[in-house]
Design a protein that fits this description.
single chain, about 325 residues, mainly alpha, about 75% helix, globular
Length: about 325
């Protein structure tokens, strides 16, 4: 996921328009695209022999070019220098941190586990809001947060001396927490411009940062295997650019509540792809824990929407 869009139409409640079926399909396809990110990264690095920094750098470089085209060309990206700098540095820097944390965790935990752990971010959004006193901790929210934590424990156990496994779990959860804090920042940064244009700047910023890190450390290469290049191209064009465009199209029709609920299929797609592409087993614990996390996410989303609707009515 590379961006957050604010709706022109708030459709969290009320009847759905006739195009809702198409929008639902678009959200599901977007989730499928996003779910392949960890899988394709494993293919590029472990099977294709590419470095993680090379994969990320080329992913964001190529995605930037694709998003510029989707935006209508460079002329459609003209914004103030201050806004551009913020998107490049803060937006790109945040995206870099999240991607490095999440994808580095793949050295220690399976892709399916990463998918479910990362998708705890809505729970962290709620917890972050409670800490800032912008959200109220009621019985529903408390139960949902406990359910999400229980789901994590079911999936990965409660590692006390798991070594590498614990390292991967911590990195995956850290990426989810970072993403939860990144969402409101990105929403503020992209206010007043199109989501596609804002994402082009974010991708460009991430590419600049990652290329700089890779070049200085000698980990950025153009000479990669065919397998690695195939994975990188798919990452850039399908799992980044196309998936994001599909997501914002569906979001404009369904609104944030329904889009968030439908998007909970993403970690399940990751588990299925990991089984098919990487031959990683889908365990009962993974599915059970993932279902608990998804239930917690839906409960939290519904709780936040109900509170917002109540505030609006008052």
């Amino acid at each position: 996921m590379i961006g957050v869009s604010s709706d022109r139409h708030n459709l969290a409640s009320g009847p759905l328009p006739p195009s809702a079926t198409r929008a639902t399909i678009e959200i599901i396809l977007a989730a499928l695209g996003f779910s392949a990110i960890s899988i394709l990264t494993v293919v590029a690095t472990q099977r294709g022999g590419a470095t993680l920094l090379s994969v990320l750098a080329w992913r964001y470089l190529l995605a930037t070019l694709a998003l510029i085209v989707l935006s209508g060309g460079v002329t459609q990206l003209r914004i103030t220098r201050r806004r551009a700098s913020a998107l490049l540095l803060l937006g790109g820097g945040g995206q870099t941190l999240i991607a490095l944390l999440a994808l580095s965790a793949l050295r220690f935990i399976p892709a399916s586990t990463l998918g479910f752990l990362f998708y705890t971010f809505p729970a962290w959004v709620a917890l972050y809001g409670i800490m800032r006193r912008t959200e109220r901790l009621d019985a529903r929210r408390a139960s949902a947060l406990l359910l999400a934590l229980a789901g994590i424990a079911v999936m990965v156990g409660v590692p006390t001396s798991a070594g590498g496994s614990l390292t991967g779990v911590v990195m995956a959860l850290a990426s989810a927490v970072a993403y939860a804090m990144y969402i409101p920042l990105l929403k503020r940064l992209q206010s007043g411009i199109t989501s596609t244009a804002a994402s082009a700047y974010v991708c460009a910023g991430a590419a600049i940062i990652i290329v700089s890190i890779g070049a200085s450390s000698g980990a950025f290469h153009i000479d990669m295997s065919t397998t690695a290049w195939g994975a990188v191209l798919t990452l850039a064009l399908v799992s980044t650019s196309a998936a994001f465009v599909l997501f914002i199209r569906g979001l404009a029709v369904l609104g944030p509540l329904r889009s968030a609920i439908i998007s909970t299929v993403e970690p399940f797609f990751t588990a299925i792809l990991a089984a098919v592409v990487l031959s990683q087993p889908i365990t009962v614990a993974t599915l059970a824990g993932g279902a608990m996390v998804a239930t917690a996410v839906i409960t939290l989303t519904l709780a936040r929407s109900t509170a917002a609707a109540t505030a609006t009515d008052q």
